[in-house]
Structure formats: C-alpha cells, structure tokens
Amino acid sequence: MSCAISYYLLFVFPGCRVSAVELTSSNTKPVVQEFQSVELSCIIKSTVTPDPRIEWKKIRDGETSYVFFDNKMQGDFATRAEILSRTSLVIKNTTRMDTATYRCEVAAPLDTKTIDEINIQLTVQVKPMTPRCTVPKAVPVGKTASLHCHENEGYPKSTYSWYRNSEPLSPDSKSNAKLQNSSYTLNPTTGTLVFHAVHKGDTGRYSCIATNDAGFAKCEEQEMEVYDLNIGGIIGGVLVVLAVLVLITLGICCAYRRGYFANSKESGESPGKNQLISLQR
C-alpha cells in the first residue's frame, strides 16, 4: 500500500491506523569506564512487522563496520557482545577503541515507513597512567626552574596539579598566604610548573597528580634544592687562576732573560756541527 493511499484511508476512515517503524533510546550518549560493560539502548517504539531485521554498525574515524549483521555478531564483538531485548546492544569488557558512534537500523517491510535508524554516541573513559615528572635537583637562588608533568593514556585528557611537601600548589601563587613569596606559573592543561625566580623557600619535595573523569595517578616525590651562589668563593677562585697565570708568564719571561731557551737551542745544534766535521774528514 503506497503512502498516498495510506494517508487517504486515514482521512476517509479515521479508525484506520497508519503504522511506521519508529525507534527511540533511553540514552543516546552513554559513558562507561574502560573494561566495564555498557548497554546501547535501541527500542522499537512502533511497528506492525512481527519480525523486523536488526542491524548495528560502528562508525569511527570516518569508517563504518558491522557489529551485528545477519543475526550474528561480527569481528571481535562475536566474543564480547550480545543483543538484549530484541534490539539493544550490550558490549562487555569495553576498551578505548570502542569509543565511536553506533547506529541501530531496523527494517520493517510491513510498515508504511519501512526503515528507521538511531545513532548512539559511546564514550569509553580511560584512567590516567602514572605521569612522567621532571624536577631539577638543584637551582641557584634567583634563577628560573621548570618542572614538567605529563601522561598520554587517559581519556578524556588529564589535567594536572602540583604538590610541594604534600601540600597543593594553587594555580595562582598570590592567592595563598604561604606562597606569596613564590613567583610561579602553573598550567593545569600542560602540567608545566615554572618558577620565574626561585628563592630558598621553594626548596622541597615535589609531586604531580594527573586527573580525569575516570580517575587519577600520581608520580613519586622528587627533591628540588635551592642554593645560594658563593660569590666570594667564585671571585676568590678567579683571582687564584689569574695569579697562577701571572706567575707562569713571569717564569717564562725570566727563563728567556737568563738564556735558558737559547742555551737549549745551541746545545741542540752542537751535535750537528761535530757530525758535519767528522764527515768532511
């Protein structure tokens, strides 16, 4: 029966029902943590076809592949997925690669509208791995010090927070009375902590925590020491080197004046002369 005839019958005979397959879902954007199970809800809201055809497809990075086709699970889903309540899809032991758009398609040939589909956007959250932290061991007073913290396994992307001696460092150093003497910039997105001019109070044990919606991970504490430059010692060392150079220069000059280098040259030439006289004889 064509759609035009169906609508005509509905107008002439109000009691005549025109049916079209229609889908709905209890959750079109499910979120699950990695290695857990998730249900992708696909519900047939209306149909007169007793046994409609069900298909599930996965769309990721612009590529489409079958999940459920010809009443069978496809690919790696064969061992970790199943159909629930006729049309919904349950995925077990989810991985980060399951993050994608899933399309539920239903074909009902006895309905006036024979095909309907609904998209489900699945997000699989992944806990952060232990971040890699880089902390300088020793920095002189007044110099710049850069501390780095990063991990690339978590999803969604991690944000970062720094701790000194197990106490959190505020993103704004001026907002904490204990840190007003510190001058630093903390970027929670990149995990970089930069001291613009360290002072003795910045000495301590530093650690970083990476956090996202799935959990957090922490790197081990690392010690950073801020030390004073011994200006007097440096100047003294330079003066000693200069004095040594002056003494060496004076020694060389005295040696030249006393003829040590000339005598050595003459003594080096004497054997050659004696050797020449012997050959002439």
From TrEMBL:
Residues 1-20 form the signal peptide. SUPFAM superfamilies: Immunoglobulin (SSF48726). GO terms for molecular function: cell-cell adhesion mediator activity; integrin binding; protein heterodimerization activity; protein homodimerization activity. One of its GO terms (biological process) is cell migration. It is found in: Cell junction, Tight junction; Cell membrane. Keywords: Cell junction, Cell membrane, Disulfide bond, Immunoglobulin domain, Membrane, Signal, Tight junction, Transmembrane, Transmembrane helix. It is a single-pass type I membrane protein. One of its GO terms (cellular component) is protein complex involved in cell adhesion. Residues 14-116, 131-225 form the Ig-like domain. The chain crosses the membrane at residues 231-256. InterPro entries: Ig-like_dom, Ig-like_dom_sf, Ig-like_fold, Ig_sub, Ig_sub2, Ig_V-set, JAM-C. Belongs to the immunoglobulin superfamily. This is Junctional adhesion molecule 3. It comes from Bubo bubo.
